[in-house]
Amino acid sequence: MSENLNLRVRIAFEKYGKIRFTSHRDVARIWERTLRRASLPVAYSEGFSPRPKLSFGLALSTGHESDAEYLDVELDSDRVDEDFDPEALVADLTERLPVGMSVTAVALIDRSTTSLQQAVTSCTWQIDVVDVDADTVAEAVARALAAENLIVTRERKGKEVTDDLRPLVLSLDVKGPIEAHNADSVIGVRLLAELGTQPRAVRVSELLATLDPPLTERRVVRLHQWIQNDDTDERSDPLSAAVSPAPAGAT
Amino acid sequence: MTTLWTQLEPLLPQVQKPARYIGCEDGMQTPEHGPGIVSWLLIYPDTYEIGLPNQGLQILYEIINERPDGAAERSYAPWTDMEAAIRQERIPLFSVDTHKPAGEFDVIAFNLSAELTYTNLINCVDLAGVPIHSAARADNDPLIGVGGHCTYNPEPIADFVDFVVLGDGEEAVGDITELLREWKQAGKNSGTREGLLRELSKVPGVYVPSMYEVEYDGEFLATVTPRYSDVPETVEKRTVADLGDWPYPKNQLVPMTEVVHDRLSVEVFRGCTRGCRFCQAGMITRPVRERPAEQVSKMISEGLQRTGYDEVALTSLSTADFSGIEQVIGQAVVDQGADQVSVALPSLRVDAFTVGIAAEIQRARRTGLTFAPEAGSWRMRQVINKLIREEDLYGAVESAFSQGWRRMKLYFLTGLPTETDEDTLGIAELARNCVKLGKTHKSSASVTVSVGGFVPKPFTPFQWFGQNTVTELNRKIGLLRDDTRRAKGVQLKWHDPKATLAEGITSRGDRRLGPVVEYVWRNGGTFQEWSEHFSYELWLEGMAAHDLDVDWYVHRHRTEQEVLPWDHLNAGLHKDFLWQDWRDALDELGLEDCRWTPCYDCGACTGYGIEHVVASATPPAGGSQGTGVDLASGGAVPVMLQPRPAQSTEGAEVPVS
Does A45 touch chain B (CB under 8 A)? Predict the structure, then answer.
């Protein structure tokens, strides 16, 4: 087996409903089992405790839903069928995933593609906040956008670190009032935010906590992940950004 | 059908590990409920992570749901944060499958594997909105049932449960469902509950505590008598004759979040004839009933394909004793490839042969190896009838270190009958010798010694033995600590003797213990199995509050004449066999494994017309344990086997779907 000829596929998937309460680690285990059930020839690491070669993108917080999750899988080229068709995996994997998780696209990507963690530059979030009226939300958003910086302090390796979130808040819009989940009288407000992920990903909860007044999230959905191309000044999603021109190694 | 999901959903982001409460497992069922259908809520009264993998619960879940007149869902004890949240919002306990309120089920049945979960049982009944005392329940309230190993002495929880199932549940749940269906279809009319309980008490294997009158003679138990002439005087356990007829679980639940034993499990046999005298499981699950080897192989390959797991555990009380072990493992390696899948043998026998098997099947991923010599000296091991010679242990350890393992775990008990300080210190000696062996292979070799305090259990030869006090157990652990302090490579761990005491109170208590368990629960003592929640003080306070003497219940030796609180129940073992075995223990006399030697007439086979059922007519190789013969040096085993009953080997294959 010559490892450098291994294929890499990038899988885009959604996560909705009850399954959203699983953690990033849980999702990794779900994927390991799903790939084995699909009998996909996943490459394994060498050594005492071989692990399947999977690499996940930015962690989605437990409880958040998503339209745009990604995962890269390395396939052992020696065991890949000649007529391997990434498109066929969409249905094949979805059928084996738990209810609430489904694959939206699969593509072969170039072996030299930058990892998801490094490549993704921002995410678009749909954030429903509750227990607050529309005017308060609008004012809080306006104040945040007008601010020169949004300072948060957090603990890292036992030390207090201060960060300015403001440069990473790429956009923040009030979309309007929403009906609450239940028939109860709570009225919520829907926000749309694009938050930067480099040098670190801003968490939705962090952003809401820095607003004045702080807001409480109810339902949060990651709508997109983006890769900014500095040369062309265009952004694209991780799948179209990375698709290799020809299925290298497949023949 | 009512679902609480929309009320639960907003609470989940506030609690730890919300995936505990969502269900969504692969293999989960969402059965229909209705007037002609008896609905069971099966609860494991500990956290989801501990409870989900429980095979007993999963087997009954499938069997009930396969019945046209049955529906089964599951629940687990909510962690303290979730309990606070649902109590605050006045939401009752719910099933994880469809989030239906627990109180809407016809039966709430608990699996009891550990006495310290009793307070969680009461808590779950309370969270369901059902009165905790069976006497206070209305006709319409769910019936509270229990099953599992603890039910061989259910007296401490007799006040809280409506019925108890003794032994294998596979057939009993069907009988109970039929009876309840008639009652439900007739409308659960007012005043009919008592009659239903009386009918239930006649179902074989079912014990209804309220149908029995208990009388005391001073502090001693005098009699336990049926209140009606048609209620049986003694309740016999249920025994499934042929495991081959019960290839369950067929669709093992695959959880979406991490649990203990997160792997495929295939039960290879039930029962054990090693005869370890401290081991309740080995006594109450007799006779040995092995699953046909071909069925095991099929369950492994289909189970792995369906679940996507890369590890399978072959479960039993001593898996290397499975007579089809070589065939099954050979097949697994051919079918799966040893690099892709690893096989776990949760209870390893201590010998080099077993280690050889482990090396074969754990090529892919090697975790530590665990052996359970249980006692530190040959004398002590004869008393407890764990007939492992030191040579067996050293052979196993040598073999393991030479094949690349670097650390292993050794399990021991302390506080055993007749134990001297010399016996206790033998534990440290064994551990040091194992490390010495390891160092010849690897300088980093290490051995973890795990010591638990011994709790005498009902239906074992040690049921008459007075448990060691907390002080005495602490002293023995202290001896071991001093003796291993300077031993490089030996790491000593021990179980809290205070928790051992609480277990002792509940394991052999009578009905007077009910108010004590209730006291602990009322004062917040849930999750007593968890060290961060265990409260020694609550148990002592509870005993004092109800004027009960810890010494009398726990530390006192019982006499042959004494009426034991479980004497009206029958685990299949003759009481005189147990008493003789207790005398033999005190005489340091070992008993060989009865599968390969003449019958000792313990009662387990003769009483039920069931023989030991073995998959292969040749005993597994290796080890001197139980055979008295040194197989390693070419000795032969005296074979006296009961082959599998003819009818079950006839049909070419037992279906596993």
Answer: no
Q: Which residue on chain A is closest to B303 by alpha carbon?
A: A37
Give the residue from chain A lying closest to B5, CA to CA: A18
Classify domain A119-229 at the CATH topology level: Alpha-Beta Plaits (3.30.70)
**Residue A229: per-residue pLDDT:** 85
CB atoms within 10 A of CB B620: 21
Q: pTM of the prediction?
A: 0.92
**A62 contacts chain B (CB < 8 A):** yes
Give residues with Cβ within 8 angstroms of B187, minimum separation 6.
Answer: none
| CB nearest to A36's CB, from B19, B22, B310 | B310
CA distance A63 to chain B (A): 6
* B101 beta partners: B94
CA distance B82 to chain A (A): 14
Chain mean position to CA A161: 25
Q: Contact, B437 vs B394, CB < 8 A?
A: yes
- Decide if A99 and B24 are in contact by the 8 Å CB cutoff: yes
Domains belonging to chain B, first-starting first, are: 5-236 (3.40.50.280), 263-366+600-651 (3.30.750.210), 368-508+564-589 (3.30.750.200)
Please indicate whether, in this complex, the C-beta atoms of B21 and A100 are within 8 angstroms of each other: no
Averages of pLDDT over runs of 10 residues in chain B (657 residues) are 90 96 96 96 98 98 98 98 98 98 98 97 98 96 97 98 97 98 91 95 98 97 97 96 95 96 94 92 93 95 94 88 83 74 75 68 65 93 91 86 84 97 97 94 92 98 98 98 94 97 97 98 97 97 98 97 97 95 94 77 76 65 46 38 35 33
Which residues of chain A lie closer than 8 angstroms to B306, CB-CB? 37
A216 to chain B, any CB pair closer than 8 A? The answer is no
Is B310 touching A (CB cutoff 8 A)? yes
The residue among B9, B29, B311 with the most chain A CBs within 10 A of its CB, best to mutate, is B9
Please give the Cα distance from B504 to B498 (Å, whole number): 10
CATH class of the domain whose range is A3-116+238-242: alpha beta
Please state the domain extents for chain A: 3-116+238-242, 119-229
- Fold identical between A3-116+238-242 and A119-229? yes
CA-wise closest residue to B558 among B635, B468, B653, B464 = B464
| Model pLDDT for residues A38-56, shown as the tens digit of each residue | 989 999 888 767 789 999 9
Query: From the CA of B552, how many Å to the nearest CA of chain A?
Result: 49
Strand partners, B314: B266
DSSP 8-state secondary structure symbol assigned to residue B552: I
